[in-house]
Amino acid sequence: MKNENSRRSFIKNISLATFSALALSGCNTKAFDDFLQQNFKTLSKKEKDIIIKNLGIKYKEKYGKEFHISDKPAIDGTLFGYALDLSRCVGCRRCVYACVKENNQSREPQIHWIEVLQMEKERGIDFAHSTAQYNPEKVPEKGYFYVPVQCQQCKNPPCVKVCPVKATWQEPDGITVIDYNWCIGCRYCMAACPYGARHFNWGEPSVPVEELNTEVHYLGNRPRMKGVVEKCTFCIQRTREGKYPACVEICPVGARKFGNLLDPDSEIRYILENKRVLILKQELNTQPKFYYFFGI
Amino acid sequence: MNFIRFITGSIKIIFHGSKTYYAWLILLSLLIIWGGIGYSGQLGHGLIKTHMRDSVSWAFYIGNFTFLVGVAAAAVMLVIPAYIYDWKPIKEIVIFGELLAVCAVIMCISFIVVDIGNPLRFWHMLPLIGTMNFPSSMLSWDFFVLNIYLLINLFVVTYLLYCVFYKKEYNKSIVLPLVLISIPMAVAIHTTTAFLYNAIPGRVFWNSALLAPRFLASAFCSGPAILLIMFQILRKTTKFEIKDEAIWKIAELMVYAMFIYLFFTIAELFKEFYSDTENILYWKYLLFGIGKHKEIVPYSWLSIIMGCIAFILFLIPKTRRNFTTLNIGAVLIYASVYVEKGIALIIPAFTPDVLGQIYVYTPSITEIRTAVMIFSIGFLLFTFLSKIAIAIVFENYNISSISRRIKSL
């Protein structure tokens, strides 16, 4: 009898302790809230606002910086498209590093959303014989041309199709985004992507605090966590505000063009009509909105 | 109440055993601890403790998962020949086959859990409370069929044992339909798993219609191999009776499976190598290596050689009927399929990666330790469950024997 009493009181104490620990320590309840947070796409405006407010507080605590977190939806009548002039690109990789900075990609372990491939002119576009590990004093090297590859923002995205939890989807303006709080990290999308555009946070991502970009979008460049997938969003935090993506702005030779495919007067539409464009791996029917062309 | 007595009775069994039994348990526990410490490192630091990277984003874990789906499927499919050829102990074969299936599915799910970046978010995949991407994602299909398969087998095996425990006649109208459903479900789990890979046109190595048939054929090689050895052990140590002819029949069926598997593989190789398109790169990486990158070549040839020796041992009637060579063959084919599914199926699909870059992957020590942990847990579970099943089915461990013992005290 005595035995059972003590056991019962032990269980009672333990559960009380657990509950009070959960209730008292703010950290734990927040972690618990995080744990219970629903898929961002399914939330109401009000719920989104609360989440974003709390996220701001969390970032402030973690990085000591004020973040401006947007969840601005797609603008009606926009469908973003991208064009890259293969005849101009010199393979300097400035886009790669501008992207890293703008989008708060982890420095260690290193994540690059853009991969620039060096290809032999004689072979044409041939991935099997290309290399991303070129390192000469000066680019471009004779006999080579360069093909930067990032998310091709497919109209028929295989990554969205395979995600088991609907953590990634295509927005009305054609940008495929990820809810980092919903992604379970199964990496099926990475297996499905034919362009190597999706990247995984294998370890805890790290960005020097002084280099953090505090202008962020919830579905874009906000700081990520360990164990989730991330990708190029055409700089959703910039382009939905009417700016160019960081890679377009930094390109020293003007090889990168960006615009609204639904606007007949846009530069991107001019290119589609007047230049001959190609898309990568068209046989897979992914229908990229990222076009390569020869400007000169 | 009755069910609780059945459960407590079952739990009591697992604490009684010989010295060898306890030594086996201690060995498994040590392996679980050793593996668990490795896995805790991965839990703390993330999947960076593995050797997977963006180029090779799926590897050893998912390969183990695939292999075990095959084991789970084949264990139950063995019920068909047992029924057709009228091997006497059909109920026992169903019980042990389904027990193996239950353990294999639990191990499968464990391998998925250790492979995902946020295991705590697993509930996102559940229907209703999460947002399951059904029917679009093959992974949600796979999750779905695996769980149903687990539940059916768990129910049937528990129910059968429960009936034996209470010396009741089991209700055929419950068991028979479920066993009949579990057989096509066994085919379904392995087909769905094959479709999981098959559904990715971007990975040409997997984008072959022969993938699912090859999966089934290879499962029919590896799954029965375990049961073949297990039946012999049971026959020696318990009252379980199975004729030599039945064991040879299993071996004979395995030869057919091996032959079909070999044929499918040769058909695949012919198509790839004769066509000689750029897609051949992946097969080249698997079999010969590309340039100086030959790291997985030994694995693939090891698997091929073990498979061929097993095929020959099983093919020749003399060696098939000799239990020494038969068991060597069973171990070899099991190991061959394990290496094939664990290494040779997954890694070449990612090497070179979709942009033609080569990242050389071999499992890290953390991955090996985690796999050892899961396999040891699976073996431990299987040991416990078989011990319970053996006691109840063969050693007259039942409700009256327990009551008698209590009364005599």
Describe the protein.
The complex is a heterodimer of chains A (296) and B (409). Chain A has 296 residues and is α+β, with helices and mostly antiparallel strands. Chain A folds into two domains: 2-52, no CATH class; 80-293, Alpha-Beta Plaits, CATH 3.30.70.20. Chain A is 30% helix and 15% strand. Chain A has nine helices and twelve strands. Chain A has a four-stranded mixed sheet. Chain A has a two-stranded parallel ribbon with strand order 1-8. In chain A, helix 1 (2-24) packs across helix 2. Chain B has 409 residues and is mainly α. Chain B has a single domain (2-408), classed as Formate dehydrogenase/DMSO reductase domain (Formate dehydrogenase/DMSO reductase fold). In chain B, 74% of the residues lie in helices and 0% in strands. Chain B is built from 16 helices and no strands. The longest helix of chain B has 32 residues, at 244-275. Chain B is globular.
Can you lay out the helices and strands and say which pair or pack?
The complex is a heterodimer of chains A (296) and B (409).
Chain A lengths: L1 H23 L1 H11 L8 H19 L4 E3 L9 E6 L8 H9 L12 E6 L23 E6 L8 H5 L5 E3 L5 E3 L9 H5 L6 E2 L14 E3 L11 E2 L5 H4 L6 H5 L5 E5 L6 H8 L2 E2 L11 E4 L3
Parallel strand pairs in A: 1-8, 2-12
Antiparallel strand pairs in A: 2-10, 3-4, 5-6, 7-9, 11-12
Helix pairs in contact in A: 1-2
Chain B lengths: L1 H12 L5 H27 L14 H18 L1 H6 L5 H26 L22 H28 L6 H27 L12 H27 L6 H32 L4 H8 L9 H19 L1 H5 L1 H22 L2 H4 L14 H30 L4 H10 L1
Helix pairs in contact in B: 2-15, 3-5, 3-7, 3-8, 3-13, 5-6, 5-15, 6-7, 7-8, 8-9, 8-13, 9-11, 11-13
